[in-house]
Amino acid sequence: MKKNLSVSYAGHLSDRVQDLYYGKVAPEGIDLHYLPLQPFEAFNRMLRGDFDAAEMSFSTYLIQKARGQMPFVAIPVFPSRTFRHGAIYVNSRAGITTPKELEGRRIGVPEYQMTAAVWTRGLLQHEYGVSPAACTWFTGGLTSAGRKPMVASEVPGVSIRHVADRTLDDMLVQGELDAVIAPQPPPSFTQGHEAVARLFPDYPAAERAYWRKTRIFPIMHVVVLRKELFEANPWAAISLYQAFEQARRNAMEFLRTQEPPALSWPWAFEFGREIREMMGEDFWPYGIEPNRREIEALCQYVTEQGLAPRKLAIDELFAPNVAGLTSLKL
Q1: Are 158 and 139 in contact (CB under 8 A)?
Q2: Out of the domains of life, which is the source (predicted)?
Q3: Domain that includes residue 150, residue range
């Protein structure tokens, strides 16, 4: 009997991947050793060579790929997607009430090139006319000082300053920053500090309007595997894609369960029904074609924001033998 290929994988644990973690879904011919980690740790450790495959910042993958410095091959599995209007926080004393008023301001972001920041700058530029070059950017830890970027980001014509001894949250509260873009709410906001507010108070409404206009559901992360692993075992990319796809499909089916309730939130099923009515039954697809609009937008944003030396074509982003694979129909 042929021995299975042993593959270590790191990524966050969600309903979309839990069947892989618990072994309910197994990639054919692969013994998958799933280590649940927070995304930032998974990204950094994968870049250090700790794993065979991992969840990876999509913008980091695109930037390093365009620079010719990416030792990984991606498969079109997108374990994290999030709308980002709700990621913009302002100092309530700074007088910022509209997106355009962010121009000329000091904005903090954990990493300039992080996917959340790229998407947020993209929507601010294309939907509200906010030029990234018109702002002064400060990078550093949101809640702990000293965070260092995964990849260097020096953009001609854009002021980017790194802060090593302060947290962005403290600077926002003290008024040393006018705004912060962050994937997680700053502690000051969750604690109800009067100095911190969201730029879009009703951000779900803003995000729904954005989706209806653009049909873009922003992709944050992608699954990658080491290039040497892929070159020695190209079939592994197909096997991993199919397993991730089956786990995703199981999760989507689970969310359609009405009785007994699948989630602890009251009215969760009705909320899910509203989402499906707006975005369609298969609102979180994998594969290239269902996500072409999002992939092309992110490729455009990393290029026009000066992070990538050239705009990548979709055909060069993913393992060629998975390019034609599609999502299972719900």
Answers
A1: no
A2: Bacteria
A3: 85-214
Query: What sign does the CA torsion over 89, 95, 99, 102 have?
Result: negative
Cα 172 from Cα 148, distance rounded (Å): 19
Structural domain tally of the chain?
A: 2
Same domain (yes/no): 23, 73: yes
pLDDT in tens, 272-309: 999 999 999 999 999 999 999 999 999 999 999 999 99
Spatial distance between the Cα atoms of 226 and 280, rounded to a whole number of angstroms: 34
- Same structural domain for residues 13 and 39? yes
327 occurs within a structural domain: no
Is the residue at 330 inside a domain?
Answer: no
12-33 residue pLDDT tens: 999 999 999 999 999 999 999 9
Edge-first strand order for the sheet with 106-109 is 159-162, 136-139, 106-109, 179-181, 88-91, 196-198
pTM over 0.90: yes
CB 106 within 8 A of CB 134: no
